[in-house]
DNA polymerase III subunit delta (Alkanindiges illinoisensis), 331 residues
Amino acid sequence: MRLDYRGAMGRVAQASGVWLLHGNEPLLEQNLLNALRQHWQSQHIERQRFEINTVNDWRDVFNSLNSLSLFSEKLAIEAHGNIKPDAAGLDQLQQFIQSPADNTLVIIMPRQDQAAQKTKFYQSIEANSVVVQLSLQNMHERLAILQDEARKLDVQLARDAWELLLAQTENNLFAAQQSLLRLSDLHQSDHVIGLEELQAGLTEQSRFSSFDLADAALQGNALQAVKILGFLLESGEADSLILWALSREMRLLMQLFEQPGQYQKLGIWPNKTRHYQQALKRISGKQLMQWPALLQRTDAAIKGLSEENSKDLLLQVTMALSGKPLFHELT
């Protein structure tokens, strides 16, 4: 079964078996995962999270699904990554799809292109369980999602203000949602924000953005990147948005290291190709291999799942992307 974002949000309470979430809209992924987690918590369902960095990590996922703890009758597992199971893992996946026993496996991956959708992994889930595509097809859908977010925050915008918000945030859903969040702190809920007020608010916010940070780090400008990071943290930019912008560039570089020259396939604009080429010359394969663990630690710190300081880890991520890591692995 294939669902879009709204269809999936309407079926959260019925989620079981395998759900594959994939797409290029991190806000939709965040909202859907938060809804699933809230449901699991309300039903006292144990939740576990796994990072799939190698094929062997799938073994841990299926071992957990086959061995519930003494205190859990149901289990929900999140598996984050872009590595599909091998043949043995696919067999275990198909067995679980056929007999999930009220347990849930949510697999979170980047957008799966047409070639990926023809794999046995994808087609097995689509035919027998649930695939959720977290992408938007047009401006109307994007606007509808943002209006939902505005209602949650009690923010009202005039029609021309909506047009400006979409243009100023370059149709980036996550960035627009963060702007709405800041506007909710500046205006009363019963006040309709007009064009001039929105322009003033966006100008105040626009000195630097998370995307400026990611661009500076990608270009190896560590001093500028650290300056921008400090500004963003002081101005209240969401740690999750900063991490998303940095991790997006890091994951693209990791993919390019494995698939040299696939710039167009990965959606990289021609005018940015040179920056990725220079970054791959500046950053060693050994450094790239350390990134998934660093990103996982940072994500856990932001979500309060560890005692590490998320701000310190964001600095480490920034410097790693700049090609000047703060810490080097001892050999």
